[in-house]
Amino acid sequence: MTTARGADLLVELAAGDGAPTLLLHAAGGGIGPYLGIAAELAARGPVRAVRAAGLLPGEEPDDDLTAMVDRYAALVDEPPALLFGWSMGGVLAWELAARFAGRGARPAVVMVDSTADPEPVDDRLRERVVASAGFAPTAADRDRVAAVTDAHLRAVDRHRVRARYDGPALLVRCPDNTDTRWPELAPRLRTRRLDCGHFDVFAPDHLPTLVAHTKEFLDD
């Protein structure tokens, strides 16, 4: 197995001028779920996304969240204006923002139904994560997505967010999300509600509300 090159992990979804956005993958590693929100954010500037290592043949998946943050922080020369992530991707966005604060930057952070503490994962939830990755056209691809998912779930199980970040932050929370630690870590946190399940946040019925919450936060 080989290590994925950084250039292979960073995907340009929209070019242009303006405030750049960086989307961070959720567990499972694919960026397919972000295509709808990326199209909306492209009106503000270029949009790039980070997909996970392990999804292509010969790549080794990461099973440590801090190692992922180290890898992804090295991908960008300048911190983006917005870091956006769903689920584990929101945690990656948060940790990257705290890392960029050390460079003197204060990017906005949008976390979609993310939790600051580890959560138990059963087999049913694992299968939902695998299915949500949006990167499995063949049986071999599905096997790789499953391996990446297992690595990510191990990473999430071991990771507890401790970094404070004083930049602007938005948590879009689904009803079942009972995490209470984000306000302790985020003095400028704004919270909004999305009335759907965790795996439905980008569905056509709910994407407009997510877009509206995000735009309101960015425009304020």
From TrEMBL:
GO terms for molecular function: hydrolase activity. Keywords: Hydrolase. Pfam families: Thioesterase. SUPFAM superfamilies: alpha/beta-Hydrolases (SSF53474). It comes from the Bacteria. InterPro entries: AB_hydrolase_fold (IPR029058), TesA-like (IPR020802), Thioesterase (IPR001031). The keyword Hydrolase applies. This is Alpha/beta fold hydrolase.
